[in-house]
């Protein structure tokens, strides 16, 4: 199971019923394929950065989900076949683990941390109050 995020722009003049029906169809296809919808974020109607198919406005929504690659391709196929979809893009989300540190690097980090802690707890230097050196 991979994590995916799909951003989709639907024609705003398609009507709210058609837009909601398409979102339901996409999520239904996802769940029937064995995927799970993590997050559905509907941004609503927004102005496009540039005209697409002579349209200046679109309805945006974002789906985050976990599924097999075949299910993701099926969702993209549904979007490709729908004439009300202006644009869509699916990206796979890769979570990276921090690199493992070698023994030397761990020791060096521990020494640096200890030095930083010692600097925090060390008493502040005392500045002697005094008169003028010239007299």
Task: Give a verbal description of the structure.
The protein is an alpha+beta fold. The protein has a domain at 2-93: Ribosomal protein S6/Translation elongation factor EF1B (Alpha-Beta Plaits), CATH 3.30.70. Helices cover 36% and strands 36% of the residues. It has a 4-stranded antiparallel sheet, covered by helices on one side. The longest helix is centred in the last third of the chain and has 19 residues, at 103-121. The mean pLDDT is 88.
Summarize the structure.
The chain is an alpha+beta fold and 135 residues long. The protein has three helices and four strands, in the order βαββαβα.
Helix count equals 3
- What is the name of the CATH superfamily of the domain at 2-93? Ribosomal protein S6/Translation elongation factor EF1B
- Overall pLDDT, averaged? 88
> What Rg, in angstroms, do the CA atoms define?
28 Å
Q: Can you count the beta strands?
A: 4
- Envelope shape: elongated
SSE pattern, N- to C-terminal? EHEEHEH
For the record, what CATH class of the domain at 2-93 applies? Answer: Alpha Beta
Global structural class: alpha+beta
- Assign a percent range to the helix content: 25-40%
CATH fold type of the domain at 2-93: Alpha-Beta Plaits
Strand residues, percent: 35-45%
CATH architecture name of the domain at 2-93: 2-Layer Sandwich
Strand adjacency order, main sheet: 2-3-1-4
Distance between the termini: 81 Å
Q: How would a crystallographer describe the biggest sheet?
A: 4 strands, antiparallel
Give the low-pLDDT segments.
none
State the oligomer: single chain
